[in-house]
Amino acid sequence: MASSPAPGSATPRGRFITFEGGEGAGKSTQIRLLADRLAAARVRTIVTREPGGSPGAEVMRHLVLSGVGKVLGAEAEALLFAAARDDHVHLLIGPSLSRGLWVLCDRFSDSTRVYQGVLGRVDTALIDAFDRVTIDALRPDLTLVLDVPAETGLARAARRRGGAAADRFEAEGHDFHRRLRDAYRQVVSANPDRCVLIDADADEQTVAARIWQVVQERFAELAPRREAAQL
Ligand code: T5A
């Protein structure tokens, strides 16, 4: 089960922001840019990722991205991602939020819902059960879903890896990646309070500015201080 802030703790819980989207949508790039802006606003943050983020989960990352899980089937793959998430939430995300840090996470449970649930046809009830065990009440405060055409994302991912082999999911065909994009759009429609769709088919700084505007609007503590300007 996910840890929660100690009752009566003087430290307010940090904010939990997740980034989602298809391959090469720009999540890692935008997380770094958001972390820089938050640091400039004197917000203490940590940047982490899934699968991975804690020693045990990094071992599982290696396993699942190598393609071993594919032969076991989508349900077993979902189980591996859930096991990695459980370790990550217990050891890093929960404790960091309790200490008042903001946590920026590259993928989280929506990835399981989309990749294993929608694309892999794993029963939603099973994924709900995994979520109850691994994340419990620790839902993200904000999920930014970066939206680019599948072709754009795959081309970016291919450019970045150069001559290296595509990983387990990058190696899927264009139809898979188009369905992935649709599935993420449905996640946003189904969770309008938590999720915001970001048009990420633009240069890095333009996308970063769009994200910063959403984050500032969402969290009152980041609103530009007007008092100083009025003095
Ligand atoms: N997965 C994960 C599941 O199936 N279930 C789960 O529950 C979870 C948690 C993780 C894989 O695991 C799957 C999904 C994934 O397939 P990963 O290696 O972590 O694999 O890969 P991704 O999360 O998909 O991340 P990528 O590294 O592929 O893409 P990003 O992070 O979206 O993109 P980024 O920022 O690395 O950028 C890619 C390239 O494009 C450039 C960058 O410089 C980089 O070279 N770029 C841009 N170029 C032009 N314009 C822009 N605006 C650009 N932004 C970035």
Tags for this entry?
231 residues; alpha/beta; Rossmann fold; 5-stranded parallel β-sheet; 10 helices; 5 strands; 55% helix; 12% strand; binds P1-(5'-adenosyl)P5-(5'-thymidyl)pentaphosphate
Sequence-ordered SSE layout with sheet pairings:
Layout: E1 16-21, H1 27-40, E2 45-49, H2 55-65, H3 68-72, H4 74-98, E3 102-106, H5 109-119, H6 124-134, E4 142-147, H7 150-161, H8 174-190, E5 195-199, H9 204-218, H10 226-230
Parallel strand pairs: 1-3, 1-4, 2-3, 4-5
Helix pairs in contact: 1-9, 2-4, 4-5, 4-6, 5-8
Bound molecules: P1-(5'-adenosyl)P5-(5'-thymidyl)pentaphosphate (T5A).
The site of P1-(5'-adenosyl)P5-(5'-thymidyl)pentaphosphate has 27 residues, from helix 1, helix 5, helix 7 and helix 9.
Describe this structure in words.
It is a single chain. This protein is 55% helix and 12% strand. A five-stranded parallel sheet has the order 2-3-1-4-5, with helices on both faces. The protein starts with 15 loop residues before the first strand and ends with a helix. The chain is of the alpha/beta class. It has one domain: Rossmann fold (3-Layer(aba) Sandwich), CATH 3.40.50. Bound molecules: P1-(5'-adenosyl)P5-(5'-thymidyl)pentaphosphate. The site of P1-(5'-adenosyl)P5-(5'-thymidyl)pentaphosphate (T5A) has 27 residues, from helix 1, helix 5, helix 7 and helix 9.
Q: Termini, distance in Å?
A: 49 Å
Strand percentage: 5-15%
**Helical run tally:** 10
The overall strand count is 5
Structural category is alpha/beta
Main pleated-sheet profile: 5 strands, parallel
- Examine the coordinates and then state which fold CATH places here, giving the name of the CATH topology: Rossmann fold
CATH homology-level superfamily: P-loop containing nucleotide triphosphate hydrolases
Helix content: 40-55%
